[in-house]
Structures are given as structure tokens and as C-alpha cells.
Amino acid sequence: MAQIAKKTKRNHHGLLCAHEYDDVFADSINEPEATAIFANGLERAGIGRRDQKVPSVGSEDFGQFGLSGAKAAMLFLGSSPDWPRFHPPDYDFRDELIPVGIRIFSETLAACLDNS
Hints:
Elements: H1 2-8, E1 11-12, E2 15-16, H2 32-45, H3 63-67, H4 98-114
Antiparallel strand pairs: 1-2
Helix pairs in contact: 2-4
Organism: Mesorhizobium mediterraneum
Keywords: Hydrolase
């Protein structure tokens, strides 16, 4: 971003361009304890887990949860690499994933209750 700012502030063809960038979104960070709770729920549900190695910017509002002090973890319920991504007009939620999501959250909640 700093390099872009330097280039756009240069005088080019007699024009001067300046801009300001303000990132209003908090970082989305999976809290380790909350991540472990989800991992336990996935294991209980018999559902595989894959850690995402590359940061994602697809959850700009999720970071707000951590600001309040909540221990939060993000779970992506993936359709498949061949399925349209979330925001394009051809996106259609795969209804057959609903029972999978219910099972994940049910087992995660049960694991929390067992440990309390």
C-alpha cells in the first residue's frame, strides 16, 4: 500500500493525485482455544478438517467479534472447489450441506457441555 501511495502522489503529466486509505475492519484471527473446540466438534462428528494456510480477507466483519473479547474461531463449510464462490450471481447454496453444518455445531456444543 505504501508503494502505491508513493506512486500516486507523484506529479504525472501536470496532475497531482493524492489519496488516503483507512482500513475500518479488524483482523479476523482464530483464537486457539476456540479453534480447538471446533476441532473437537469436527472429530466427534466424524468430519475431516483442513487448516487454511493462506490468510483470507473474505470475512471482514468476523474480526469485530474478537474486539469484544470473545474467543472466536471461523469455520468454513466448503462446497467444493468446483462450486461457485459466495458472492457471484451464479452462487447457490448447496442445501445438502445444511445437515453437515447442523452436525458440526451440534457435536461442538455437545463437546462443550461434556467439558463443563
